[in-house]
Each structure stands twice: as C-alpha cells, then as structure tokens.
Amino acid sequence: MLAIHVMREINMSRTISSSFPTVSTDTAAHGDAPPRSAPASGASGRNPDRSAQASGALAGLSRRKSQGPSSEQRAAPDVTAPLPLETKREVTNHVLHLDPRTLAALSQTSRAWRDAIKGDVFLPLDVMPGIANAIHTLTQQVLQSGYQGDLPEKLLPILSPRNRERFVDATIGIQDETDKSYALLRLGAGMAHLSEPQRNRVVKAAIAIQDESAKGRALGGLGYRMAHLSEDQRNGVVDAVIGIRGEDHKGYAMAGLVAGMAYLSEGQRNRVVNAVIAVQDESAKGMALGRLGAEMAHLSEDQSNRVIGAVIAIEDKFTKGLALAGLGAGMAHLNEGQRNRVIGAAIGIEDESVKGAALAGLGARMADLNDAQRKCVVDAATGIRDAGSKVWALVGVAAGMANLGEGRHDGVIGAAIGAMESITDEMFKSMALDRLVAGMALLGEDQCDRVVDAAIGIENESAKGRTLRGLVAGMAHLSEGQSNRVVKAVIAMQDEFAKGLTLGTLGARIAHLSKDQRDSVVDAAVGINEESYKAEALAGLGAGMAHLNDAQRKRVVDAVIGIQNESAKGRALAGLGAGMADLNDAQRKCVVDAATGITAAQPKATALAALWEGMTVRRNINTGTPGSAEVTGGSVA
C-alpha cells in the first residue's frame, strides 16, 4: 500500500521545512518530467541511513541532487512511539496529504516510487492533467463570456485561488437578479471553499438584491451555510431576511435561517423565532415552524412554548398537520407538558389524511414518549379509517416502536400491511407502499413477501416504478428470491422514464445481485432508446462499478460514450465518476476524453467536476480501503 511505502521513506521525527521546492528536471531520470501545470511539492529534511534507492527517492524532492547523508547524521528516535495508535493515525493522515501534484512529481524520482504510485488503482494520475487543463480552459471561457450562473459548485474545490476569485467576481456581476440569485445559491453551497473576503462579498451581494423573490432565494441558501459565516455576516443575513416584506418570498429564506439555528447567538435565535411567529401567511409560517422542530435543542423553554402555541393556532389544517409532524423531530427536547400539547393537537385533527401525516411524524419519536403518550398515539393511528392515511401513520409509529426493542412494532406493521392491501386504487396503493418500503428493515420475511407481491402487481408503471425504487433501496433486507422478483419486474417495465430511474437506483445496490442479474441490469440499461432516460440508468451504474466484471464495465462505458445528447451525456459521465477507480487505464482515458469533448458548458463542467472527485478519492491510509469522502485533489485549475 502506498501509505506504508511513504511511511517507510519518511522519518516522522525530522523537521519538515515550511517551503516545498520544485522538482529539478535532473531528478527525473527514470520517467517523464512532471507536467508544467502541476508543480511538484515535497518535504525537505535530513534522512539518514537509507538505501541508495530510497535516498534517491527522497532526494528528488530537493532543488538539487542530494550528496547523500553525512557521517554525523543519525536517525532520531521515533517520537511518536508513546502515542496511542489512534493518535498516530490521525497525525499520519495530516502529514501524508496525497496531493496528485506531489505524487506525480514523486513518481519521477525513482522506479520504486513510480511503481508504488502508478500501481495504486486509487491514484490514477495519468489522465488527471487533462481534466485539470479542461476545467481551467472551460472556467476561463465561461467566466469571460457573460457568465449566467451555470457552473456547478463542485468546481470550487478544484479551482485555483485566482479562478475562484474570478468565479466570485462573475457571479456577483450577473445583472439579471433571478439568474444572480440561483448563481449565489450555488456559490453558497461551496462556501467552505471561499476565503473570508469572498464570503463577505457573497453575503453583501445577496443582501443587495432588490427583487424580493430572488433575494429570499439567495438569503435562504446562505441560511443553510451559517456554519461558514462570521458573526457580522450572520447578523447581516438575519437582518435582511427579517426585512423582506413579501411573506410569500420570506418563507424559503426563513426556512434557511431556521436550519442554521445551531450557529446563531441567543439574541439572533430569539429574533428568528419572533419573526417566524409574526408571519401572517400560514403556508410560509407553517413551513418555518415545522423546520423549527428539528432545532428544538437550540431553543429555550419559553421559545419552545411559543413555537408550539403558534403551530396549534394555525387554521389551515394541512399546514397545521405538516407543522405538527415537524415538531415530532424535537420531542426529545420538550418537557412532558409540551409533548402532551403536541400529541393532543395531532389527535384532535379531524381530517384523516392530515392526522396520518401528523401522527407519522410524532410516532417516529416514540422512544421519547412515556407509556401513556405512546398508547394515545398508537390508538389514534390504528383508529384512522382511511386506509392510505392509516398506513402512513402506522409505519411512522412502527419505526418509533422498533427502537424500543422486543418486537413491539410487529403488530403495528401487520396492521399497516393489511390496510395497504385493502386499497383498490393503484395510485393510492402505491403511495401506501411507498411508506412501507421506506421501513423495509422493520418487516419480517413473510411481510416482505406481501409487500413485494403488492408492488409487482401494480399495473400503472409510473406508480409501480416509484414503489420498485423504494424496494431497490431496501434490497439488503430482501431474500434472494425476493430480490430476483424485483429485478425481473424492473427489467420488464415498458415505460422508459420509470425504467431508467429505477435501473439507476439499482446501480448502488448491485452488490446484492448475482452475476446473471447484473448482466440483465446492464443489458436493460444499455437497451433503453431515449438517451435522457438511458443516461439516468447508466449514471446510477457508476456507483456499482466495483461489482461489475470487465466486460460489463466496458459495455457501460461504451454506452455512455455513445450518447449524442450532451446534456444526457454529461449526467451519465458524472455518474461514472463514482466508479473511476474501478476502471482500467484505457476506460478512464475514454471517459475523460468524452467529458473534455463536450461543447456545452454546464454538462461539461458537471462531468469534469464529478470525474475529478471520483479520481481523487483516496484510500484510507490505515486500512487500504477507499475513503468515503476523502478528497486530496487540491486546487489545480
């Protein structure tokens, strides 16, 4: 494993220089010189008692050839020896930052390094300069030709500081305020990659928007990124949101502020709660109040009381039901009296569809209720006469009861399945099944059989596809026979839109399928005629590349490259990014060439960003397994 090779070569106790000199061309004796666009970096320091080959590898990181260690130099003791293993690993993770540019340069210093780096399938460096150059060129072209906000935020961590600054400049310079708000929304999603001055400019640009609809959209996005804002910036966002006059535009912005409650001061939270309660438009108010349920841990008892009172006072029954369901997420942070008020309000709703939604939200938190409160919720859910609403409520209750152990949810799930089976209208039945398949982990084998039977029996393919996607997501909880029936049902679908989406969902679950089933899934995806639907299926298969054989991977890659519609092709290539480490060199090159060959900016940027991310996810250096979200690519473009 590369990390072990690195650890053997680097003396962890030496002094690491603060400068990282460029690799001299005279050190590249055993390979091509590193790309000019990717200057090398490394560590300088004394490294005694190495073999000639190892010493040469490290010497390649200096500006001039090493003359070898002096006789006075001796290896320092391992100062990490007394540290716990977990601490050593943490230190190692930070010291050994496997930046592709560093590794590309390091691979030129000796055959040993080249073999270690080039032989690591999770570090496919050969095609990375091509992606970096394509991203650089695309960014320059788009930002200099009347940028309209169509570059994805995933580009931000890849861009160089200069291009990141240009990205911010171009976004702030957009004249149409609707376009600008969407561009700021995307830029805000990448706030963690912006400097403090850049964040300040983004906040000021959002606050300065005059159109209230656009302003609410941009500010709402910033609300979700409060963790990355300074105290002054948060104050500015809170002031601006509260100052929006049109309540229909204020709703989304308020919801964003609520999502960032954990990062607000006590005074800011109080202002947000006051502003939410003061909203007159019940739809906007209900949405924000429901979101406050998940933030109850950050509210005082008085604030919680006022929020509960505001929810109970909502007159629109549908809005009230959804807001009550939202409060369920905060049950653990309410006192017994507050819980009684919320439960009483939910049970008192007369409209059964609304009651079902409210009880489902409360039922999911059964572990936070006392025995009397649990009985009230269960009795109310089982007493609902409308079958679809009953299923919704009972599945939520069952999920909450499962946390209590002892199989206490079995009877509730049985009642929910019975209610689902009594529904004759296919659309309503599929909606009830959606609730059940979301809780597949709660079902026994016989209960799974009944749910699979009902799903496969639906004739309306739009409804059937939605339910089958839910079953696919819960594939780990199905038996082999049940999985086989689901796969056959997916492949047999005639509606290509529903089929493409469902096959795409199967991609991430392909590990649960046999080789023959995988063959059938690949055949079905490749065989879809409409390119936009085919792209959805093929993109999903990217997540399952590790579980396909070489022939299956080749078919998927060839099918993606063969797509003519550039928008569809960009989506499909972006999906393949998740499986780039599992492709061979030729396949990776074909995929990168296809992405760089796209002419339309938005799909090209989407594809390139995803491919870069897929190729810079590195091994966990302690286990040799791919890191789930560890990216070492750095800024290059």
From TrEMBL:
The name on file for this protein is F-box protein
**Disordered: annotated span:** 18-86
Q: Where is the composition biased (Polar residues)?
A: 18-27
Question: Low complexity bias located where?
Answer: 34-61
- Membrane-crossing residues? none
